[in-house]
Amino acid sequence: MNSIFSPIQQFLISWILILIAGGLTLQTINYVGELVTILIVAALVAFILNAPVAK
């Protein structure tokens, strides 16, 4: 099967797509990481404040 792109072009396109996907993944983790941190801190504060009240 004949390909439109040469092997070097396929290699470069593959690596460019991998780098773009990696960058987007890191941005998503950074964005969601802040939300996860806030939720974990809120849960810990609620647990600590509820501990003296619980019987």
List its salient traits.
mainly alpha; 55 residues; 1 helix
Model description:
It is a single chain. With 55 residues, the protein is an all-alpha fold. It has a domain of 32 residues. Helices cover 80% and strands 0% of the residues. The protein has one helix and no strands. The radius of gyration is 23 Å and the shape is rod-shaped. The termini are far apart. 0% of the residues are buried. The mean pLDDT is 90.
Short description:
The protein has 55 residues and is an all-alpha fold. It has one helix at 7-50. Keywords: Membrane, Transmembrane, Transmembrane helix.
Task: Reconstruct the topology from this structure.
Layout: H1 7-50
Q: How many H/I helical runs? A: 1
Low-confidence runs of at least 5 consecutive residues: none
Report the portion of residues in β strands: under 5%
Question: Can you summarize the main beta sheet?
Answer: none
Assembly classification: single chain
Shape field: rod-shaped
Fraction in helix? over 70%
- Strand and helix order: H
Indicate the mean pLDDT. Answer: 90
The total strand number stands at 0
Backbone structural class: mainly alpha
For the record, give the distance between the C-alpha atoms at the N and C termini, rounded to a whole number.
73 Å
- Gyration radius (Cα, Å) is 23 Å
Transmembrane segments: 12-29, 35-54
Keywords: Membrane, Transmembrane, Transmembrane helix
